[in-house]
Amino acid sequence: MLEDERLEQILDxxxxxxxxxxxxxxxxxxxxxxxxISRPAVYQYVRSKDDAFRRLGARLLEASLSGARAxxxxxxTLTERLTGALEAKLEMTLRLWRxxxxxxxxxxxxxxxxxxxxxxxxxTAMLGLLVDTVADAGRRTDARAFAELLLALTRGxxxxxxxxxxxxxxxxxxxxxxxxxxxxxxxQPTESS
Length: 193
Fold this sequence. Notes:
This protein has 193 residues and is mainly alpha-helical.
């Protein structure tokens, strides 16, 4: 088995354990058992449970960002491209809630100290992607402010996942309304205009 494949196997096992038991209750023995390898073998790929959590988080964030980039580059309306990009972000959160209703809050909130830099980089990349998507559409608006508003909308939707079908619908409606507002809002000069 190649090195990368073994690491992916361990991260898959960590995901299964974290979603089943939560981060705090998962042990390296649990991860090794789930991966079907010895604990010393796991330590050849990850230094600790925290390292496994951080690497897994990086993988999830990268997959989300990759999906967002793909969606934003698909030909379509600005609404479709922005909605697709933000749905990729939302899907990461929805997946954790689906896979681990009992531990999703812990997975999304606990140990964020381990992921602060990764989350900051992810948010910066998402913001840049949205800014570029809006700017490429040639809309007369402050693309950065508009992108920040879109991210705030998405974060708000992620905060209430009580209805399983509502988040995607709310996101589509919100993006549609915000983009429609671009066409009806007179251009406001900014400091840089």
